[in-house]
Amino acid sequence: AKCARVPGFRPGKVPATVARQRFKEQILQDVARELVPKAVDEALHERGVEPVDSPDVNDFAIDEGKPLTFMATFETVPEFEVGDLATILVQQPASELAPDAVSAALQQLRERAARFEPVDARPAADGDTLVADIERKDATGESDTHEQVSLVIGGPGNPPGFDANLVGMAAGETKTFAIHFPDDYPVPQLAGTDVTYTVQARELRQRVLPELDDEFAKDVGDFESLDALRTRVEADLRQESAANAQRAVRNSLLSQLAQRIPFELPVSLVEREMDRRVEEFARRLMEQGVDPRKAGMDWDEFRESQRQAARDAVGSAIALDQLARRDQVNVEPDAVTSEMARMAEALQRTPEAVQAQLAKDGGLPRLVMGMRREKTVEHALGLITLSRA
Predict the structure, then answer these.
(1) Alpha carbons 384 and 217: distance in angstroms, whole number
(2) Which of 228, 181, 171, 235 is nearest to 205 (CA)?
(3) 72 bridge partner residues
(4) Which of 137, 148, 237, 368 could link 196 by a cystine bridge, Cβ 3.0 to 4.6 Å?
(5) Whose CA is closest to 209, among 108, 127, 105, 113?
(6) Among 343, 309, 325, 303, residue whose Cα is nearest residue 379
(7) Assessment of whether the complete model's pTM goes beyond 0.85
(8) Residue 289: which residues within 8 A CB-CB, separation 6 or more?
(9) Helices 226-258, 101-112: crossing angle, 10 deg rounding
């Protein structure tokens, strides 16, 4: 009644009886949309059943003053035995640092802090940055021009043979040359074609690394000396190495759990996981400023390449759920509340708002399921047999 627009009534002033009469079907559908997911979740919870996919609702009947009835059909995973986890042997990788690991990390910090200085006394050399205007013309005569482009001579994205034509150029010089792209060039539009480039060099810059000393340490962060920076870098590397070793143990555990499933994995779950991985990769491209539609990728091929990884992910999830049921691994309500508070802080929202959004989107069961699986992983890690690499 507050939102309806009905001739003869002002917005927000439509009587409830009129709204009920004119929008009866829509009202009933809204009621059903609110009630059905809750009814399904309650019914599944009461019976201790976990569906493979969203239930298919049919035989739907709703009318005012009468009970809402429907039939929910869904596929479930059959019961199976996960087995004795002590028979799972996982080799824990060594987490010692390589002798030159700290020096290599410090060198990377130097590389990131490099500055570019103009060069006037010599021509361009490998590793220099050439600021230039570039005209590109293909075999059909179609051309495009880009101004003030910064080119790193020897950069990995340069066309084949391009760098050899830039070496020796000086500021103010113009050079025209042709490049033939091989038939197996990764960009299909360029493979097997000839492109003519006209490069007008405007400025030459060389990359200069800072000295590795106490001043450098102070510039990098809140470090009093190079020794203090070195100590911090070593501690971070050791923490990262330990995390990588733990991640390897976890992945091996999940892989071996997935191999214990005695039946064919549900196709719908594998396909959905493949779709999720494609969407996640596309989202990462967008975060890097790349339009997924213009990335030059065969998305069908990429999706198919994710099939085995998707099967492993689905298999391990099913095995974890079965292990949780067998060993009665549950998530306490206080833990769910704490997790929603953590999510609220990260999203800069109130816990109540996050809880309301999860309830609206049906995300609360997924949140609890994810938390239970993580708790089950920790439970399983305490049961397997570890060996040192």
Answers:
(1) 44
(2) 171
(3) 57
(4) 137
(5) 113
(6) 325
(7) no
(8) none
(9) 110
Give the chain as a 3 state SS string.
CCCCCCCCCCCCCCCHHHHHHHCHHHHHHHHHHHHHHHHHHHHHHHHCCCECCCCEEEEEECCCCCCCEEEEECCECCCCCCCCHHHCEEEECCCCCCCCHHHHHHHHHHHHCCEEEECCCCCCCCCCEEEEEEEEEECCCCEEEEEEEEEECCCCCCCCCHHHHHCCCCCCCEEEEEEECCCCCCCCCCCCCEEEEEEEEEEEEEEECCCCCHHHHHHHCCCCCHHHHHHHHHHHHHHHHHHHHHHHHHHHHHHHHHCCCCCCCCHHHHHHHHHHHHHHHHHHHHHCCCCHHHCCCCHHHHHHHCHHHHHHHHHHHHHHHHHHHHHCCCCCHHHHHHHHHHHHHHHCCCHHHHHHHHHHHCCHHHHHHHHHHHHHHHHHHCCCEEEEC
What does the pLDDT look like over 318-337, one tens digit per residue?
Answer: 999 999 999 999 999 999 99
**pLDDT tens, residue by residue, 267-303:** 888 999 999 999 999 999 999 888 888 888 889 999 9
N residues, the chain: 389
Structure tokens at 106: 């410090």
pLDDT of residue 389: 65
> Which tokens in the block code for residue 4?
């309806």
Does residue 186 carry a pLDDT above 90?
Answer: no
Nearest to 363 by CA among 345, 340, 342, 332: 340
Cα–Cα distance between 293 and 160 in angstroms, integer?
Answer: 25
Residues 6+ apart with CB under 8 A from 189: 296
Grade residue 28 by pLDDT with cuts at 50, 70 and 90: confident
Tokens of 70: 């429907």
The two tokens of residue 165 are 């034509």
Measured CA to CA, the distance from residue 199 to residue 178 in angstroms comes to 11
112-167 pLDDT tens trace: 999 989 988 899 999 999 999 999 998 888 889 999 999 999 988 888 999 999 99
pLDDT at 228: 95
Residue 77 has which token pair? 């995973």
**In the Cβ-directed half-sphere of 367, how many Cα atoms lie within 13 Å?**
20
Average pLDDT over residues 199-211: 92
